[in-house]
Amino acid sequence: MKLPSLLSRRGVIAGATTLGLMMTSAAAMADVVKVAGIFTLPVEQQWISRIHIALNAAQERGDIEYSYSENVSNTDYERVMREYAESGVNLVVGEVFGLERAARKVAADYPETAFLMGSSFAPQEPNFSVFDNFIHEPAYLSGMVAGAASESNVIGMVGGYAIPEVNRLMNAFMEGARETNPEVTFLVNFIDSWYDPPKAKESAFAMMDAGADVMYAERFGVSDAAVERGAKAIGNVIDTSADYPGTILASALWHMETTVDTAIAAVAAGSYAAEDYGQYSYMAHGGGSLALDEALVSADVVAAVKAKEAAIMDGSDSITVNDEAPVSDN
Questions:
Q1: In the beta sheet, which residues pair with residue 190?
Q2: How confident is the model at residue 31 (pLDDT cuts 50, 70, 90)?
Q3: What distance in Å separates the CA atoms of residue 309 and residue 303, rounded to the nearest whole number?
Q4: Is the domain 136-254+286-314 a CATH 3.40.50.720 member?
Q5: How far apart are CA 188 and CA 196, in angstroms?
Q6: Lowest mean pLDDT, pick from 3-12, 124-133, 312-321
Q7: What is the pTM of this model?
Q8: Cβ atoms < 10 Å from Cβ of 306
Q9: Where do the domains of the chain lie?
Q10: Is residue 54 within 8 Å of residue 255, measured between CB atoms?
Q11: CATH topology of domain 31-131
Q12: What would the DSSP string read from start to end of 303-314?
């Protein structure tokens, strides 16, 4: 048999190499998890943005192919879930507060699709996992800062809705404030909206008129009111200190990367199961942290906060999860 020429051999080798690269690339593409996000609010909204940022980071690493739908109404949510499941996505991520029954029915109809949903309730076999914003630990730490900062001993708190996801953060914040200032009292109001800055701002003004000199800004609009009145504020979920310089003392931050990455890895490994992912929002897992403006907070308070944080991280101290609706002291 005649041996191929050197040029021919090179051609064969190059062709084989190209084919190998194509096969490797195809295999890599097959391993990329297809993820869909379904959100009832814009992706810029503070709570939703944490999930969206984590999923975008996974896509930038090449771990997933990510598509999403935002501003999906509760009445349309089930249809959108079904459309994504029918399209062959591997993992659906979203929030189902207020439409639990419909969402869980969809998950039951598509057992081969993984669902990871923000929910106050338990997982559902075989494929419906839940997560929640358990950032009560940094909320407590931010409360320590607020309590020490209040000179009037009155702190105002404006929340969206009195649901567990909000209540647990506000209660932890209040307990933290009481640690550094046992004399502090609270004014609490819920505006019954996830996004109504003018209404939140109006509520904050009323509280400051009643003596509050530190405001807990669970909703947008509160920090704006604090700026106008020269009060201080505590942020929530995201760090807005750059937008309100000299006003935001501290913020309890939520990070969804660990939650999202754990779910993606399980789907890729074929080991995804119905689980409670809430633990991944704890500080020990990197799901929560405290942003602290040390230029606005005294050194002794910074030291106390950092000592408490260290105790939380090493497990020698813990913060109680209290989902009951907080109320004003007077």
A1: 159
A2: confident
A3: 10
A4: no
A5: 17
A6: 3-12
A7: 0.88
A8: 14
A9: 31-131, 136-254+286-314
A10: yes
A11: Rossmann fold (3.40.50)
A12: HHHHHHHHHHHH
